[in-house]
Amino acid sequence: MDLRSLDNVDPEDIGSNTSAEPSVGALIERRFGRRAALRGLVGVGAIAAFGNELMGSSALAQPRGPSSLTFEEVPHGLDQTHHVPTGYDAEVVIRWGDPVVAGAPAFDPANQTAAAQEKQFGYNCDFVDVHPLPAGSTANDRFLLVVNHEYTDPGLMFSGLGAGRDVNLKVNEEQAKVEIAAHGGSVVEIVRAGQSWKVVPDSKFARRITGTTPMRISGPAAGHDKLKTSADAAGRDVLGMFNNCAGGSTPWGTWLTCEENFNFYFGSADAAKLPEAASYKRYGISKAAYGWGRYVDRFNLDKEPNEPFRFGWVVEIDPYDPSSTPIKRTALGRFKHEGCTYALAKDGRVVFYSGDDERFEYLYKFVTTKPWNRQDRAANRDLLDEGTLYVARFGDDGKIEWLPLVQGQGPLTAENGFATQADVVINARLAGDLLKATPMDRPEDVETNPVNGRTYVMLTNNTRRTEQQVNRANPVARNAHGHVIEITPKDGDHAATEGAWTIFIVGGKPGIDPAARYHRQTSDNGWLSCVDNCTFDSKGRIWIATDGAPTAAGIADGLYGADTAGYGRGLTRCFFQAPTGAEVCGPLVSPDDSTVFLAIQHPGEDAGSTYDQPSTRWPDFKDNMPPRPSVIAITKKGGGPIGS
Ligand code: FEO
Ligand code: CA
Ligand code: CA
User: Fold this and answer.
1) How many angstroms does the Cα of residue 63 sit away from the middle of ligand 3?
2) Which atom of ligand 1 approaches the CA of 151 most closely?
């Protein structure tokens, strides 16, 4: 998520964890020396996993070979359109305003209505996934494409609002309702046509989920007093989902979509005076960044103080049943979920990893109580309601501990404000504080490599980390470019409460940023900044999308591929460059490796760029069309696996 559109809040002030844990930088320095710590040479995991192929600001070894990725790199740059390597094509699959459900009117951005938007593709696409059609098929030519719509940028959506601070607060009532309808998610059916992917019009599976779609709340927090409002005295039903950033899926074929910066939607004249002030503060809830509270009471904390407790959850949706009710699964905790991706434990239980994307926030995982049932899909219907939520502590010895967030265990007692498991999941951050979890540099996507079984954590940046707050897992003070941690679960079992970790890469430009660390043969185009989402191809190579490239230096966000094993480990290579103002989201490599799907989010979201005078009109480049967030498909000319 880019925060330009939320100019009325201080994007540097979204962090709210005052925990001092664990500032082990001084300890490491004493034991190992600071330069060694920064180079990741401390600890077993670091040395073993890096081998000799990586370099830091000083090279560690001779080059031993190139990447397995042989595409011609896209040169770093920044302009109004996107770029793919020579020999590849990129096509728009679906754009903001395109029809999703039957009866959707043609997109008329100058006269957009909430009624139209409810049937059309929403704004700011982020998470992207595909579910095969028919279910269970391995044919690779027909899918349900599921996409999140994270947030709205009214300055680029509506004429006449202009740019600058507070533009979000200027919307009229109909515009606010368009925004609410442009949030949520979309399900569309896509089919392969030659090398292209086409949306099937009027598919029976097509669905728009918006900020007003009825949803059910399940798990420990369902029915808790804090979830009760004047519209829902039972605390079990809620309208819509907001700020759905990344997501995931389940082995039984449902879509997990994650509410991230939900705090921006709710505001009070003085939140510090309300009874839930301490929790609001820990979750960054004070002034609304959107202007909806003037028209819809539930966004006004002074009228509905409990509404924000109904957001910040993982939502499970069955994409195969457009009439199904989305369910907020509270057992997985309430925080700013970037995504939620699964790995299987050895005994068939399912493990879901999720980062809390804010400065100094934590990494979590949830382990289901029961294994999933491969024979009976319906038997997995409520598997996500029972399990154990853990928070991560990264040790200075290269080990990771997963600490159970279970009421009654350790400090999670009634005396400390946790009388029930509902209290724990509702205020998961506060529970993590008591367990002394490790505050991280903004955990974004967390994904497990299907080939090597290791889990990769994208830590996007944290410019507020001081020298004193540096630790081995977050080794860069004023971390502007982010880094990637690789976790190896003990005995290869994702349900294990221990594991080892190492740093895979550190972002920034080698030679300029002292902490930057990649394979020594990473080119001048291959370095990256602000890792956000990632995915893997069938060979186990990682594909990393960025959000926050240094545009002042003329570099756009992009997609980078790298080997995770062998000589090319850590050799990131630039595969895609986004149009100006955009971040790159969703990366997904199709199961047959033939296609990379990307969500191009907030094109044209540059300083001063407006609907009337945008910095780009990507992807249509028509005078009457604003920039349009879009899902694109990248394929190799003539077909074949992408990358090589
Ligand atoms: Fe919505 Fe953490 O990015
Ligand atoms: Ca981001
Ligand atoms: Ca993100």
Assistant:
1) 33
2) 1
What is the count of structural domains for the chain?
1
Residue 643 lies inside a defined structural domain of this protein: no
The helix or strand, by DSSP H or E, that contains position 434, with its residue range, turns out to be helix 428-434
What would the pLDDT profile of 323-336 be if each residue is shown by its tens digit? 999 999 999 999 99
Q: Where are the alpha helices (DSSP H) in 196-331?
A: 277-282
pLDDT-based confidence at residue 8 (cuts at 50, 70, 90): very low
Number of residues written out for the chain: 644
Q: Report pLDDT for 438.
A: 98
Q: How far is CA 128 from CA 117, 139, 594, 595, 629, in A?
A: 20, 19, 16, 13, 13
- CA of 334 relative to ligand 2 center, distance in Å: 19
- Give the C-alpha distances (Å, rounded to integers) separating 598 from 84, 95, 126, 206: 12, 12, 8, 20
Strand 363-371, strand 349-355: pairing: antiparallel
- CA-nearest residue for atom 1, ligand 1, is 1
When the pLDDT of each residue in the chain is averaged and rounded to a whole number, the result is: 91
CB 343 within 8 A of CB 448: yes
CB under 5 Å of ion ligand 3: residues: 245, 444, 532
Give the model's pLDDT for residue 533: 98
Domain membership flag for residue 563: yes
* Token pair listed for 192: 């392969």
Residue 429 lies in a domain: yes
Atom of ligand 1 nearest to the CA of 338: 2
402: confidence class by pLDDT, cuts 50, 70, 90: very high
Q: Is residue 642 part of a domain?
A: no
Range of the domain at 426: 4-636
- What does the alpha-carbon distance between residue 272 and residue 298 come to, in Å, rounded to a whole number? 18
Tens of pLDDT, residues 202-245: 999 999 999 999 999 999 999 999 999 999 999 999 999 999 99
Ligand 3 center from residue 549 Cα (angstroms): 13
